[in-house]
Write a structure and sequence with these properties.
66% helix; mainly alpha; 4% strand; four-stranded parallel beta sheet; Rossmann fold; elongated; 14 helices; plasmid
Length: 450
């Protein structure tokens, strides 16, 4: 068997750890001195297999950090192993410590292999160790034995190398079997848990049946004690009567249960209707307040118009009341664009605005007037009004976009009636009078949102 260099790099050989061939002890020297070979004296290609096979990772973590800068807690197993091989190649204190650890751990195997006086006897002992599976002690004893030739070391290294492949393949098969066994174990555990749960249910049912049977037996015993002179037929009749009574009670219970459920459903429906009526009542009250305000504003506007008419004929111009104090005084000098509405009410609104000194431009939203004329009428307007009950959605959306583009305020009216228009103008008049008086208005009013 020819010694081959392994296909992987076992360790890096530094300048300090490299020794020339002339400094290596020859095989003849070792046999002549009858001295076992030290770890540092062996071929550097053997150090990886010796350290990896004969020393555990725990032992290396205790020993290697004493001679290197590695952290025993954070360094990986590969780093620890690699550093140990470098210590063995470099010689020195680290190699001596590793050699001492090997000798102390495998002293028994070393004494057993001392009986071999030649290479053949040494190989026989090595083969026996292979058969028994006690490989790490035998491997160090063979490699360090005084009669171990190059051929013996090559043979031991080759067999150990092939054995590592077999162990790796066996480990992979064992892992697959272990995964399958763990899956089977989990399935069996789940099945066992389900069976235990079912057994608990059956046990509870059995206990309940036993309790019912015991209670029935106690009832029969009590009945027999109360009526010892009753015959079997009478007892059967009594039992039948009790059963009928139980059935009647169950029927009555079912009837009352259905009635209760029906009553709960009716109560829920009544509650929903009550909430709907409350909402309608709130809407009606809000609408009533708006209508009352519109009526009051319309009444004030009518009275102001009558007073103005009387004042024109019965008083001088210097004694005429101030127009800003009337309900529609805000219209004086204002230019208003009114979009939508009805022709009859629009004519009244236009005459009302002109009587108050304002200007009202009416646009029907595109029914007869072209929609393009609306954009031309908006830039000089003080406010744009539109009744939400007498304008289509397309015209309303177009109106809002044009007003926002030109920076003109707009406001919706509840209806196309004269009352809604007068109530809106009355609110603006009251706000203007409050602002002139120097006191803040009781509530903020938005021309856009009302």
């Amino acid at each position: 068997m020819i010694m081959q260099t392994p296909p992987f790099q076992l360790a890096r050989t530094n300048a300090l750890g490299h020794r020339d061939a002339c400094c290596q002890p020859t095989e003849a020297d070792l046999r002549t001195s009858r001295r076992r070979a030290r770890l540092a004296e062996l071929d550097s290609h053997l150090h990886c297999s010796i350290i990896g096979t004969c020393l555990s990772t725990g032992e290396l973590r205790k020993l290697v950090p004493k001679f290197t800068d590695l952290d025993r807690y954070h360094a990986s197993d590969l780093e620890i192993h690699h550093a140990a091989v470098e210590l063995a190649i470099a010689g020195g204190a680290g190699a001596k410590a590793l050699n001492k650890a090997l000798d102390e751990r495998y002293s028994g195997a070393i004494r057993r292999f001392e009986a071999a006086r030649d290479s053949e006897a040494l190989l026989d002992l090595w083969n026996d160790a292979l058969k028994s599976g006690d490989i790490p002690p035998a491997y160090w004893a063979v490699m360090s034995h005084p009669h171990a030739s190059i051929e013996v070391r090559q043979s031991a290294f080759g067999e150990l190398h092939m054995l590592s492949h077999l162990v790796g393949a066996a480990n992979r098969a064992d892992i697959r079997r272990l995964v399958a066994l763990e899956a089977d174990n989990q399935a069996l555990r789940d099945k066992l848990e389900r069976q235990q749960a079912r057994l608990l249910e059956l046990s509870a049912e059995r206990d309940a049946s036993l309790r019912q049977a015991n209670e029935h037996a106690l009832q029969l015993a009590a009945l027999a004690e109360r009526k010892p002179d009753l015959s079997t037929a009478q007892l059967a009749a009594e039992v039948e009567r009790l059963r009928d009574k139980i059935d009647d009670g169950e029927r009555r219970l079912a009837l009352h249960t259905s009635r209760r459920e029906a009553a709960e459903q009716r109560a829920q429906q009544d509650g929903e209707r009550t909430r709907a009526l409350r909402n309608q009542l709130g809407d009606a009250q809000a609408l009533l307040k708006i209508v009352q305000a519109e009526c009051a504003a319309l009444e004030r506007a009518t009275l102001d118009a009558a007073a103005q008419y009387n004042a024109q004929f019965n008083a001088q111009s210097n004694t005429q009341p101030d127009a800003r104090r009337r309900a529609v005084a805000w219209l004086s000098g204002k230019r208003i664009v009114y979009v939508g509405g009805r022709p009859n009410s629009n004519a009244v609104l236009k005459s009302l605005a002109e009587a108050a000194g304002g200007e009202l431009i009416v646009h029907d939203g595109g029914v007869e007037d072209r929609k393009g004329l609306l954009a031309a009428a908006l830039p000089n307007a003080d406010v744009v009004l539109f009744p939400v009950d007498c304008i289509d959605h397309d015209s309303m959306n177009t109106l809002k976009r044009v007003c926002e583009r030109h920076g003109v305020e707009y406001a919706p009216l509840r209806t196309a009636s004269v009352a809604s228009f007068v109530e809106f103008v009355a609110r603006l008049t009251a706000s203007a009078q409050t602002a002139r008086a120097g006191s803040p208005p009781p509530s903020a009013f938005c021309l856009r949102h009302g």
